[in-house]
Write a sequence for this structure.
């Protein structure tokens, strides 16, 4: 099951608001066991997430571990890290 980005949505006076999420620091993310994958011409983060993590909903995990702030911000031939176990990242939240 994927982690919803809206799980911490709260309501106050019938208005929806979102809580701030603290992201793990670089050292914590670097310590997560991962494999390296070379990007091909037609790769997308959601497809890589499906292939390696079992769900395209985990595209944000790959982006987080690689400090990618936009889903298409990588180039053909670039090496990216993909966590061996997505739970290593999910437990940080």
């Amino acid at each position: 099951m994927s982690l919803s980005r809206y799980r911490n949505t709260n309501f106050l006076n019938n208005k929806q608001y979102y809580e701030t999420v603290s992201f793990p620091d670089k050292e914590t993310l670097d310590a997560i066991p991962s494999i390296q994958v070379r990007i091909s011409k037609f790769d997308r983060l959601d497809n890589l997430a499906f292939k390696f993590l079992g769900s395209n909903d985990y595209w944000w995990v790959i982006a987080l571990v690689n400090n990618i702030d936009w889903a298409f911000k990588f180039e053909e031939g670039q090496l990216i890290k993909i966590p061996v176990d997505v739970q290593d990242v999910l437990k940080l939240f």
Summary: Residues 29 and 65 are 6 Å apart (CA to CA). The mean pLDDT is 84. The chain has one domain: 24-90. The radius of gyration is 15 Å.
